[in-house]
């Protein structure tokens, strides 16, 4: 009987300890998309990326315009092909056709290179912004004693009820003004 009482007391003690430990864990949530869009660094990164992408697009468009001129020239010369000028014109058309093919190859390579450069530039511009936001969330979570902070902008969070929304605290940590729409 004494052993049974000891086991019962031990079991109750363990249950209380587990409940106490669970009660101490705090949960918070944040919408990282809203946070990132409110950061001035994100607006700067967006503007810089758009400028860079536009420059790459302009370069490709110039190459495309050059190709189109060559194709038009080829088509016009081809229309004038006759038995009398066949020998001279076929040589010219062959050279022009080769030039067009070389340019098309350069355009394809330039497009692939531009895509790689855009990916690299995107990482270069946005990674520091993501890191700054992540670090701020971590600091706030640690300061406030949160065991978990969920990002409700990600599809993995199906439901949340409770916890504290940390967006305004993190914005304050980053020095971002809190507008009435985000309160």
TrEMBL record:
SUPFAM superfamilies: OmpH-like. Residues 1-23 form the signal peptide. SMART domains: OmpH (SM00935). One of its GO terms (molecular function) is unfolded protein binding. Residues 71-120 form a coiled coil. One of its GO terms (biological process) is protein stabilization. It holds the Pfam family OmpH. Keywords: Coiled coil, Signal. InterPro entries: Chaperone_Skp, Skp_dom_sf. Belongs to the Skp family. This is Outer membrane protein. It comes from Daejeonella rubra.
């Amino acid at each position: 009987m004494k052993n049974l009482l000891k086991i019962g007391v031990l079991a109750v003690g363990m249950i209380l300890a587990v409940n106490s430990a669970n009660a101490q864990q705090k949960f918070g949530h944040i919408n990282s998309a809203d946070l990132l869009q409110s950061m001035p660094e994100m607006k700067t990164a967006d503007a810089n990326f758009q400028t860079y992408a536009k420059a790459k697009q302009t370069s490709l468009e110039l190459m495309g315009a050059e190709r189109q001129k060559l194709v038009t020239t080829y088509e016009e010369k081809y229309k004038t092909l006759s038995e009398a000028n066949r020998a001279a014109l076929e040589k010219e058309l062959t050279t022009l056709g080769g030039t067009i093919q070389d340019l098309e190859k350069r355009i394809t390579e330039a497009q692939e290179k531009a895509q790689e450069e855009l990916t690299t530039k995107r990482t270069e511009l946005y990674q520091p912004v993501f890191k700054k936001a992540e670090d701020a969330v971590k600091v706030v979570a640690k300061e406030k004693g949160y065991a978990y902070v969920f990002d409700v902008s990600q599809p993995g969070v199906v439901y949340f009820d409770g916890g504290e929304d940390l967006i305004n605290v993190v914005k304050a940590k980053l020095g971002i003004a809190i507008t009435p729409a985000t309160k």
